[in-house]
């Protein structure tokens, strides 16, 4: 089963993808993580993407689609969680074509729906482990030792695009470019909406399991 986690920045896609990978036989494909990997390895694509990402803008569809196509060419085509992809209608159409060529498809799209006020609180104060990618929050989910990852002792970092002015640009791009995907996948009868504003991440995970019958 292939699924898409759809939702604004800060809606918890990464956290839920991590739970699905730990508990079931899923693999996470996060285009944000793939871009950050390319940036830290200073690949040509990483250099091109880096400026856009730290400005809070989307990477062009052509580059993003090619990266996903390459990823799928060399690995599994089943039990994938698409996290942060597709983010535009063009990407959704490209993904459909790539999967059809591999005799595969998207089975369900989980929309994590959060109020904007809560998104802002979550993103301001987010800390990320550069090694294992786990995310923390200064107030809501602090690490045991200040500034240090609980799992691998790496120094936690703030993502350059988590600065308040960049967050506003990312939320705007979610509204204009990504939210049309909600209707797109409704029409395809694949969308399940979960209102997550007042739920713990454990409760959200339960709802996802129910939706996927896992
Ligand atoms: P978040 O969901 O918190 O915004 P991600 O890690 O998914 O974070 O993405 C970080 C940045 O990487 C995005 O703001 C964007 O610049 C770029 N990016 C990630 N996925 C895509 C995509 N599918 N299309 C275009 N740009 C993307």
UniProtKB/TrEMBL annotation:
Subcellular location: Cytoplasm
Entry keywords, A to Z: ATP-binding, Cytoplasm, Kinase, Metal-binding, Nucleotide biosynthesis, Nucleotide-binding, Transferase, Zinc
Entry's EC annotation: 2.7.4.3
Annotated CDD domains: ADK
Pfam families xref list: ADK, ADK_lid
Biological processes, Gene Ontology terms: AMP salvage
Pathway assignment: Purine metabolism; AMP biosynthesis via salvage pathway; AMP from ADP: step 1/1
Protein name according to UniProt: Adenylate kinase
Organism, as annotated: Spiroplasma alleghenense
Domain of life: Bacteria
Function field: Catalyzes the reversible transfer of the terminal phosphate group between ATP and AMP. Plays an important role in cellular energy homeostasis and in adenine nucleotide metabolism.
Keyword ATP-binding: yes
